[in-house]
Write a structure and sequence with these properties.
The complex is a heterodimer of chains A (about 70) and B (about 250).
Chain A lengths: L2 H11 L21 H15 L5 H6 L3 H8 L2
Chain B lengths: L10 E5 L4 H12 L3 E6 L2 H10 L6 E4 L8 H12 L2 E6 L14 H22 L5 E10 L12 H22 L4 E7 L5 H9 L1 H10 L7 H12 L10 E4 L7
Helix pairs in contact in B: 1-8, 3-4, 4-5
Classes of the chains: A mainly alpha (about 70), B alpha/beta (about 250).
């Protein structure tokens, strides 16, 4: 899966318009990135990538690139 | 001295006995004289529970209660090997925290499969003619989530609300057979599932404990209430949901 496709999946999960996010986007600046969005991200990572995100991993995410790095595994 | 809670010679089936409230219920039942018949998915956890029981004559059956087709042969086997039972506790359940957009039909199905469909089929098989003794009691483990709304809890809360509704209907239907059926409704209980949650959100935990003012509920607190409902002391109680919630629902 390409980086662009993964970003599109994150956008869909966070209910953002396509093209809103880039790898450099700082998550703290994204209003929609709230506790429900984080929960959605946990479910999406598990369903689509088989990746189990922990609370500590979520806390460690600063930019979209940090999420992409974990989804690569 | 009269002992209100005496289960000598009684056989009680505990479905979902591998951990938390189910395991603790099995332990409490064994301390008041019952022969406990354990059902759970994980064989090694069942054996662990079995080792924690007092007294003799307990047994265990590894089975997945979300496999609805398997419940009929399971209860046939239990009846053939253990005889008629005096009580059933349904503790099998899965929690789920899924925002609406992640709540795909299959995920909703999975939650209902164990929490609700499995419950109904288990009761249906347990109360077949000849499989229970006079004074049979059934207790379902519900949740305060059934009466409270919370984000991302649609599946879990709905499954427990369905359980509560079924308990009321079944109480009327099973009264003709002399069977009482009730639910206990714990609020936040100190189980593995809770400890996972608490490690992720300490702020909301603090806020919750102000409303659940008797404090965090231990599995044995819920187990004791279940055992009360199974006992002769509760013979005029049926079709109710007993809140074991540290005061939460009084807010």
């Amino acid at each position: 899966m390409s980086e662009q496709e993964k970003i599109a999946m994150i956008e869909e999960t966070l209910e953002l318009d396509e093209g809103t996010l880039t790898p450099d986007t700082v998550l703290a600046d994204v209003d929609e990135y709230d506790s429900m969005a984080k929960l959605s991200l946990i479910v999406m990572a598990d369903d689509e990538f088989g990746v189990k995100l922990t609370g500590d991993m979520i806390k460690g995410f600063k930019t979209v690139a940090d999420i992409l790095a974990v989804l690569d595994k | 001295m009269r002992n209100l809670i005496d289960f000598s010679g009684k056989k009680i089936i505990v479905a979902g006995a591998s951990s938390g409230i189910g395991r603790q219920t099995a332990i409490v039942l064994s301390t008041v004289g019952a022969r406990v018949i354990l059902i759970a998915r994980r064989e090694e956890k069942l054996q662990e529970t079995l080792r924690l029981l007092e007294g003799e004559g307990h047994s265990c059956y590894a089975a997945d209660l979300s496999d609805l087709e398997g419940i009929e042969p399971l209860f046939k086997r239990i009846y053939e090997e253990q005889g008629a039972s005096d009580g059933l506790v349904y503790c099998a359940g899965i929690n789920s925290t899924l925002p609406l957009q992640q709540l795909k039909p299959q995920k909703l199905q999975d939650v209902f499969q164990t929490n609700f469909f499995g419950f109904i089929e288990t009761v249906r098989q347990a109360v077949r003619r000849g499989r229970f003794n006079e004074g049979m009691r059934i207790v379902a483990v519900s949740s305060n989530a059934a009466i409270r709304g919370d984000k991302a809890h649609t599946a879990y809360s709905s499954s427990k609300a369905a359980m509560n509704a079924a308990v009321r209907c079944l109480a009327k239907e099973l009264a003709d057979k002399g069977i009482n059926i009730n639910a206990v409704s714990p609020a936040v209980t100190n189980t593995e599932i809770y400890r996972q949650y608490a490690s992720e959100s300490s702020d909301s935990e603090k806020a919750l404990m102000e409303r659940q003012y008797l404090g965090l509920i231990e599995p044995e607190d819920v187990a004791d209430s279940i055992v009360f409902l199974l006992s002769p002391a509760a013979k005029m109680i049926t079709g109710t949901v007993l809140f074991v919630d540290g005061g939460l629902s009084s807010n």
